[in-house]
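Input (structure):
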């Protein structure tokens, strides 16, 4: 599902289901689109068939939450995590600047993610308005129940965490991916995340300024030996089901 208002992305969600479950999920996706922070003037729901053979199964990334007291501190933490994965401060700074200012030529949000060379900061996505859209991901019914319960137990439940964790788990599963940076377009939702295979899914509160409608995703990739077409094909087309859930930790305040 993709919802937009005045040609700007406001909400999106991906599911991967057996045929019998499609009808029930359509109304849920409509509800999600209509409860976006901005009323959409266009909602697209695309249903397409996926051959069940090549589905892969994964455990979701571990989830941690840190609560810095300011946006500045949150971005320092983000740069620190990106740095520990090999993304230089200059490249991390460029990614943060793009998400703050709007990464399209018009300064608006993209529909998908920026693909960034982690060494040079060069953008690698061929369409800089659409970007890369991670799709064909879902949880088994048991895994969805487990993640819902786990997030609730830690006091961090939000439907968007479930969706974003699935995206991040798929992106991190590729060895070409060094890390991912994300924050939402929703002006009231200021918690973003940095995800990586080594560090898991680290939610960072205050990563964006409250009231800002700018958001997006950046996938930092290792350019050495990168087969771009194959990498993008995997993220957009290869079906992936999360069938078990990683550790979920209670939020930690950052005291400096
Ligand atoms: P959201 O978390 O839905 O507010 O999305 C934040 C931003 O992430 C959007 O503005 C898009 O640029 C990007 N985005 C949303 N969904 C996807 C997806 N499935 N794959 C890649 N990027 C996405």
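Output (sequence):
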């Amino acid at each position: 599902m993709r919802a937009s208002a005045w040609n700007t992305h406001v909400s999106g969600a991906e599911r991967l289901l057996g045929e019998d479950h499609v009808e029930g999920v359509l109304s849920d996706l409509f509800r999600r689109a209509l409860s976006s922070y901005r009323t959409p003037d266009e909602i697209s729901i695309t249903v397409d068939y996926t051959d069940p053979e090549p589905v892969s199964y994964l455990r979701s990334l571990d989830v941690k939450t840190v609560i810095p007291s300011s946006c500045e501190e949150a971005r320092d933490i983000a740069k620190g995590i990106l740095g520990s994965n090999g993304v230089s401060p200059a490249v991390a700074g460029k990614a943060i600047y793009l998400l703050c200012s709007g990464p399209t030529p018009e300064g608006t949000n993209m529909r998908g993610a920026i693909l960034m060379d982690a060494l040079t900061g060069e953008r690698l996505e061929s369409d800089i308005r659409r970007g890369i859209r991670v799709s064909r991901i879902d949880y088994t019914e048991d895994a969805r129940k487990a993640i819902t319960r786990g997030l609730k137990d830690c006091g961090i439940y939000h439907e968007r965490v479930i969706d974003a964790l699935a995206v991040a788990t798929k992106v991190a599963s590729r060895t070409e991916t060094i890390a991912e940076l994300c924050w939402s377009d929703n002006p009231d939702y200021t918690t973003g995340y940095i995800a990586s295979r080594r560090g898991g899914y680290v939610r960072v509160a205050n990563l964006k300024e409250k009231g800002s409608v700018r958001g997006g995703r950046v996938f930092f990739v290792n350019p050495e030996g990168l087969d771009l077409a194959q990498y993008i094909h995997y993220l957009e087309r290869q079906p992936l089901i999360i069938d078990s859930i990683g550790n979920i930790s209670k939020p930690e305040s950052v005291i400096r």
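Notes: The radius of gyration is 17 Å. The CA atoms of residues 214 and 251 lie 25 Å apart.
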